[in-house]
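To whoever is on call:

I kicked off a structure prediction for a single chain this morning and the downstream step that reads the tokens threw a length-mismatch warning. I double-checked the sequence; it's 279 residues and nothing unusual in it as far as I can see. Pasting both halves so you can look.
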Amino acid sequence: MQKRSLNIPAMADALPGTADIAIILGSGLGPFADTLADATSVKTNDLPGYPVSTVAGHAGKIVFGKLGQARVMAFQGRIHMYEGYSPEQVSIPVRLAHAKGARQLIVTNACGGISKRFRAGDLMVIEDHINLQFRNPLRGPQVSGDSRWPDMCDCYSEELKQLAERAAREQGIRVQRGTLAAVLGPTYETPAEIQMLARMGADGVCMSTVPEVITAAAIGMQVLGLSCVTNAAAGVTGERLSHEEVQAVAAQAAADFGKLVSRIMYVLQDGGWGMGDGR
């Protein structure tokens, strides 16, 4: 099997900046990129070989900017397999971020809440995931520099999970850990499928994120995963689901999300909590 050439070096050369931290912004969470200082953006349509995002709420831009001293690379809109792209194409942002210097990655998404612990607008720190997309971006010939068999036990960094929880407490933001199930989509799940996912141990469900995290594990990036719970999943409350609702709730949660991510990035770049942290 011949692995498709993604031409990451050519795409990286077309981008204007470098990064310490990268963030992939899920449905409705794109406005975070607008908070970056000294920002420069590039339309992904202008990058040779970069897949076109076709989903409402995904702007199709890469923004370089700063939060404090942190150089941030923000993907304002992601690519999904349900749009017809391969797992390798979906994972291009991760490889691009790594090529531009980022060694820490924050992946975000909008997810349906399976566990009744969660309500619409909550933020979930991803503890682990269940890959029910049944596809893997590492399939095929090994890419130079990748681990062939990456260990997925700590694919969501425990250090970063604890950092996110501490930052949330500091900001007065409610977060809980949970396990994320990823399905292919684009249909929402049936109530029976949600019951199955609950029995498997999933707290939330999305249609993204997992291929990106697998790729990050293979190339040695430290990952933090954050989900915005935008709705109760099918059958949990009996209400019908819509993408418009997903975007609307994510937009309402954007302020807390932005405060949390900003604080996390400040701490990551400073290497500590600094003076006045209560220690």
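Update from on-call: the warning came from a stale cache, not from the record. Cleared it. Sanity check on the structure: The two ends are 55 Å apart (CA to CA).
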